[in-house]
Amino acid sequence: MLSDNRSVTNAPNETPTQKKGRFFRRSLIMVIIIASLPGLFIGTGIYFVGSEQIANETNRLHQQQVEQTQKSIDDQLFGLESSLSHWAFDPQFDDKLKKLDFVYGYSQVHDIFKTLLVMKQLNPLIDKVTLYLKDPYPLLFTEEGYYPLNPTQQPKFDALIKQPYQAMWSNFTGDEEE
C-alpha cells in the first residue's frame, strides 16, 4: 500500500477513461508493430540482396580500374621502349661526341640539352635523364647543364656502363657516397 491509500496495481480502481487510454495505447503499439513488420522484412531482404549486388559491382569496378591502370602502364612502357630505341640510333649521340668542343660547339651542346629535356618530359616514368661521357674526359650532362665528374663519381658510372643490360630500372645517383 502507498501512503495515499492507492494500491500498487490500480486495476480495480481505474476509471473508464483510464481504461480507454490504456486500450488505445496498446492498440496503437500493436498497429505500429504490425505496420512495421512488412517494412522490416522488405528492408532486411533488400539489405542482404542489395549488399551482395553492391559488393559485386564494387569488385567489377575495381577490376576494371586495375585493367585500365595496367593498360596505361603498358602504354607508357611501350612509349619508353620506343623512345629508347629511337635515341639509341640518334646521330647526335654517336662517336662525334668524343670530338665535340664544348666551348665552341655551342649549338650541338644546346641540342643535347634540349634532347635530354624532351626525354625527361616525354614519359612520366622518367624522373631524371643524364648522359655520361667517358671520353675525351668524364662529363655528366643533365637537363640543367654539364659538369666534370669528380674522381669518386667516375667509377660508379663506369660500373653502370659495364652492365650487360641495355636498359634497366635504377635508383642510381652519381652523388651518393659509399
Residue windows where pLDDT falls under 50 for at least 5 positions: none
Describe the main β-sheet briefly. Answer: 3 strands, antiparallel
How confident is the prediction overall: mean pLDDT? 80
Distance between the termini: 94 Å
Q: Say what oligomer this is.
A: single chain
Quick structural overview:
The protein has three helices and three strands; from the N terminus they run ααβββα. By secondary structure, it is mainly alpha-helical.
Description:
The structure is a single chain. The chain is mainly α. 55% of the residues lie in helices and 5% in strands. It contains three helices and three strands, in the order ααβββα. The longest helix is centred in the first third of the chain and has 73 residues, at 16-88. It is rod-shaped. The protein starts with 15 loop residues before the first helix and ends in a 17-residue tail after the last helix. The relative contact order is 0.05.
Question: How would the blueprint of this fold be written?
Answer:
Elements: H1 16-88, H2 106-122, E1 131-133, E2 139-141, E3 146-148, H3 154-161
Antiparallel strand pairs: 1-2, 2-3
Which descriptors would you attach to this protein?
single chain; 178 residues; mainly alpha; 3-stranded antiparallel sheet; 3 strands; 55% helix; 5% strand; rod-shaped
